[in-house]
Amino acid sequence: MLVIRSDKRALQRLRTACERAKRMLSYAVQTSIEIDSLHGGIDFYATITRAKFEDMNKSFFSECVETVEKCLRDAEMCKASIDDVVLVGGTTRVPKVKSMLQDMFDGKELCMSVNPDEDVAYGAAIHAAVLSGDEMLQDVLLVDVTPLSLGVRTIGGVMTLLIPRNTTIPTKKEKVFTTCYDNQSSVLIQVYQGESVSTDENNLLGQFRLPGIERAPRGVPKINVTFEINANGIMDVSAEDKVARIKKKITITYDAGRLSTEEIERMVQDANYDR
């Protein structure tokens, strides 16, 4: 047996050869992997069929379809309302991925008029041009959404929602809060991102304190909290006591406390499981 776990160079050469074989299997039903002197002077040779490759990766292919189904649910759309299915990313060249997507959409012809390796770059360029006010793209509408729900921590560590997940941006939401204790002179505004009802399981984006609240029995002061997200994904959070005429705010940039795609997906899955 050839063990190469500790040989980083050999691992990289093997990965490169496997990537090349994966691409070949998009056009051929069988291919070989050949590497001279892979490790310790030993050559490596193997053959793999498309059927074997598909069987080895069936769980990943299923995740692709599940992701598309999730997008449809989040957008509250049905398959019949989709005009075109555009393939994005080099992996969509894999025949099994194409066939699974086509089956999911009841045999609908897939759109392959754009190079799947360049789709994201095209979209990013168009989005940048729209944001910069390019006159040639005045009629182009690109819709961005919040990947996770946004809210504040309230008594008991409860996540009180202001902006739900998948809300189209730019957006602005307001909600009125009050004090928890008699004669409370300040409130702490803690901004969270996530899908759990408990802020302990969500992601803290930022916090600030609003001082100078007029002392009164609990429940009497009215604190107006506003979340406003612009087209660039930058969020302004403000809290205002209109009676005392006191206002504080913070700005949360797109990358502040930003979660990875995997962390966002985990939060969504955990929330769906809890429900």
TrEMBL record:
Stored Gene3D superfamilies: 3.30.420.40, Actin, Chain A, domain 4 (3.90.640.10), Substrate Binding Domain Of DNAk, Chain A, domain 1 (2.60.34.10)
One Pfam family, short name: HSP70
Keyword list, A-Z: ATP-binding, Nucleotide-binding
GO MF, one example: ATP-dependent protein folding chaperone
Nucleotide-binding in keyword set: yes
Identification of the protein by name: Heat shock protein 70
Position of the signal peptide: none
Record family assignment: Belongs to the heat shock protein 70 family.
